[in-house]
Amino acid sequence: MPWYQTTFRLPPFRRGFHLITHLVEANAPEIQKIKIGLAHIFLHHTSASLTLNENADPTVRVDFESHFNHLVPEKAPYYRHTSEGSDDMPAHLKASLLGNFLTIPITAGHLNLGTWQGIYLCEHRNHASGRMMTVTLQGE
Amino acid sequence: MPWYQTTFRLPPFRRGFHLITHLVEANAPEIQKIKIGLAHIFLHHTSASLTLNENADPTVRVDFESHFNHLVPEKAPYYRHTSEGSDDMPAHLKASLLGNFLTIPITAGHLNLGTWQGIYLCEHRNHASGRMMTVTLQGE
Amino acid sequence: MPWYQTTFRLPPFRRGFHLITHLVEANAPEIQKIKIGLAHIFLHHTSASLTLNENADPTVRVDFESHFNHLVPEKAPYYRHTSEGSDDMPAHLKASLLGNFLTIPITAGHLNLGTWQGIYLCEHRNHASGRMMTVTLQGE
Lengths: 140, 140, 140
Description:
The structure is a homotrimer of 140-residue chains.
Chain A: E1 4-9, E2 16-19, H1 21-27, E3 36-43, E4 48-54, H2 58-71, H3 88-98, E5 101-107, E6 110-111, E7 117-123, E8 132-139
Antiparallel strand pairs in A: 1-8, 2-7, 3-5, 3-8, 4-7, 5-6
């Protein structure tokens, strides 16, 4: 298969951790044509991030929001980049702790995720627009 | 070279950080056939993770366990996902802080790691079974 | 396009977070030949790391250094790996929190970064030499 690449805008999400596996699959149906390959999922932002985690119990995602707020507080006395709001610098730090890209194996036309794995969009800003994402697929 | 992909189960490891470079290489001997390429190593779990770090002094791995327990404590008062044991929610959070996949260059038939780099399996649960891993190789 | 891989040494950087997008591009001009593909950027070290974050305001990078020093303090009482200096064990931990590799989409001959995204070299040691990096490119 030749390379396949698509760029699209996710719908806006409120601050927190959100399951978006279905949105990635819906925007990259060419995954179904690949027997063995890799899907690379990239977010073009510095205040939101991507991670893989538990896809079943919504309280896991609530606890992610609580814990990352604890780990990266707003209004830390040492922040100097404060002009864009108290949620801005923490958002940058959370984005780098979690990372802004994923690479997932493709097997037999599907993202080869574990039973409990789902793709999270981690929205760290209070009032963000829909985030831009590029999915690049490759395989045979 | 065509794509190569293999899924296998690691042996169970106790909670902590463990060097598994040799296990990845033993399960993906096709690395030796690739002059230039990439190895993608993916863990199908949400309570264990992968990272690259120091491969020589075992106290580094002990300090990783200590520090991640400090950074992500058990029984934080704000956790709501508590039904699967006090080590469960911290395991999910540690897994996303460290990440569940690695991509490593292949050069002249070997994983092109730095002198001091080794692959760690980071086991965050107290009593886990062997973890499932998929290695995807590509190159020429 | 066949695979392209290059290994080079970055100039030494002082402890902190540094924009190096231009250095990656200068050392991998073959990016310009790729219409659709991926760039994999790998650091061969365990006490420095790579991340993508804000490329405009230098105070963001200052706040990264402050916050990671807060998150991973020197001289934590539980460290056992202390023989290589008080900045050594924190450097290993920071390196794994941030990660030592990036994969970035290539589109129309350019790294397809968001408007505000830049590549940071995160130097966690007080007195490091220039770090070794391998860039692997693939695409069509």
